[in-house]
Design a protein that fits this description.
globular, 41% helix, TIM Barrel, 15 helices, 3-stranded antiparallel β-sheet
Length: 376
């Protein structure tokens, strides 16, 4: 099977030669994989671990995203990010929140709201054709839409959660701006691809480690209508919808399925209701899952045998499809290399013998740019 055949067959529950793989790791982990195998770019990493998905993207041609004297980097909405250092790595964190403390619309500066025409879509079809028939083709990131998390990076998380309770008019304007921007951008990409995109990718962190972040009433009032409109638009182009959701989100799954969600990414199993077996038994006929091998426990602190056991369990739970196997988020710094290898080796996707075709693989996205793309 080609990667695309494998993914689509698993999505349609028609079986597969091996379980489909969707890799995600921090830049530091991806560089560790490069060093281990003697690789030079991200495309080679994806080939080695057997990732069955590839992403296309339009070319940014909008206003310059500035880098400031303190090293911070500007995002699409005027927010800024700066690297926070920790032992062994670094993460981009929001350091300037332009909409914090703004309580009335007359004080809201809309000059930094991005537009879909800041991007050139003319190469999308060509990018898709280069991948056609080989990989499942995706567009978008976990940071697209992303009303709670990303508006929090421009306004403050505590303020956002209060906004949702109070229907704050400033938050509603920011939510509308994000929705309009990403809805139009995704629509333009799908139009340019002319039927060649298999999945679109958006996100929203509707859950935390223990439960849901917002009430069903809040979800229905603010989120459901927007996602219904978006899912319907994606389906009109023959593509499937994938939504990244960190945390415990099981309570929202029945409604998201009704609205048109096709794939839940990344399945964080921190409560009994988020266990992959529970999800499979309750929603496995209507929803495909992605991820599910925990980066907080198994990948970071487990043994090779623990990783193998988790993979075998998923192969048994999804013998005909319904799961794209991968980690619950980016594999984190400190995760042992032997656990990473065990994940993909047990799944049957790891290319341990590196041949010339892998070493000749064209350069993919830089690990740092992949990390940044999920913030905007």
């Amino acid at each position: 099977m080609t990667s695309r055949e494998r993914v689509i067959s698993a999505y349609e529950r028609r079986g597969y030669d091996r379980i489909p793989i969707k890799h995600e790791a921090t830049p530091e982990i991806n560089r560790m994989i490069m060093q281990h195998f003697g690789l030079s770019n991200m495309e080679q990493v994806l080939r080695v671990v057997g990732d069955d998905f590839r992403y296309v993207e339009p070319v940014y041609c909008g206003p310059e995203l500035r880098t400031f004297p303190d090293g911070s980097i500007e995002g699409y909405f005027g927010e800024r990010y700066k690297y926070a250092q920790f032992e062994g790595g670094r993460y981009l964190e929001a350091c300037y929140l332009p909409y914090a403390g703004i309580e009335t619309l007359d004080k809201l500066d809309r000059s930094h709201f991005p537009r879909a025409d800041w991007f050139d879509y003319s190469t999308i079809r060509q990018q898709c054709e280069a991948l056609q028939g080989r990989f499942a083709i995706c567009f978008g990131t976990a940071g697209d839409m992303d009303f709670i998390n990303s508006i929090g990076r421009a306004r403050g998380m505590e303020e956002v959660l209060m906004d949702l309770l109070e229907d704050n008019e400033v938050f509603m304007a920011l939510m509308d701006a994000r929705f309009d921007f990403y809805f139009e951008q995704h629509k333009k990409v799908l139009e340019a691809a002319k039927g060649l995109i298999d999945f679109t990718h958006v996100g929203d962190d509707l859950g935390n480690q223990r439960g849901q972040m917002i009430s069903h009433e809040t979800f229905e009032r603010h989120f459901a209508p927007r996602y219904k409109k978006y899912f319907d638009m994606v389906h009109s182009f023959g593509a499937r919808t994938m939504m990244h959701m960190c945390g415990c989100v099981e309570a929202f799954l029945p409604r998201l399925i009704e609205l048109g969600l096709d794939v839940q990414d990344v399945v964080q199993p921190t409560t009994p209701e988020m266990d992959i077996g529970y999800l499979q038994s309750h929603y496995g006929e209507k929803l495909t899952f992605c991820g599910s091998v925990c980066v907080q426990t198994t990948m970071a602190w487990g043994s090779v045998a623990d990783v193998e056991r988790e993979v075998h369990r998923r192969q048994e739970l999804f013998p005909k499809g319904g799961l794209f196997l991968g980690p619950t988020h980016a594999i984190q710094v400190g995760s042992p290399m032997e656990n990473i290898l065990a994940l993909y080796r047990t799944a049957g996707s790891l290319e341990e013998k590196i041949d010339d075709s892998i070493l000749r693989a064209a350069a993919g996205s830089d690990p740092e740019k992949m990390n940044m793309s999920k913030l905007f």
